[in-house]
Amino acid sequence: MDAEPNTAVGPPNASESPQRGLIEYTHWIYALHSLSVLSALFTTRAVALRFVFGLPSIIAVIMNYARRSETHGTWLESHFRWQIRTFWFALLWVVVTALVSVPLMIILIGVYVAYLGTAITGLWVIYRVVRGWITLTERRPLPMSVP
């Protein structure tokens, strides 16, 4: 009786399934961020403000943190880092713009400073979402700086 030991063999490409699932998950995160951007473009709201305070982007960043550990050591780690940093830096620049523009309201240029700061932040957000999503579609990592 030469029976081989019972070894657990997964389905073919079992190691790729979680990766594919994470890729689809990351697409959904980019889609949520894009929804925030598009909702601002089609309304009177500023892109930066809708991105930072809009429900789709808040849900997306929560989703990033929920599965971030699963991407460690993969090329998707750079996308999760990119998405998280896009959100937090956009929030930072919105706050900095507000802190600078509110005192300048006294001399009537604060509105222009707020508009300019919010517009530049909005353009930066659009660039980050588009570049990240295109790079994800190409299945390539994004450049990562030192944490």
Outline the structure in words.
This protein is an all-alpha fold and 147 residues long. It has one domain (17-137). It is built from five helices and no strands. The protein has helices at 16-41, 47-53, 55-67, 76-104, 110-137. α2 crosses α4. The radius of gyration is 21 Å and the shape is elongated. Residues 1-18 have low confidence and may be disordered.
Overall 3D form: elongated
The number of strands is: 0
Largest sheet: none
Tell me the β content. Answer: under 5%
Quick recap:
The protein has 147 residues and is mainly alpha-helical. Helices cover 70% and strands 0% of the residues.
Write the layout of secondary structure elements.
Elements: H1 16-41, H2 47-53, H3 55-67, H4 76-104, H5 110-137
Helix pairs in contact: 1-2, 1-3, 1-4, 1-5, 2-3, 2-4, 2-5, 3-4, 4-5
Which features would summarize this protein structure in a list?
mainly alpha; 147 residues
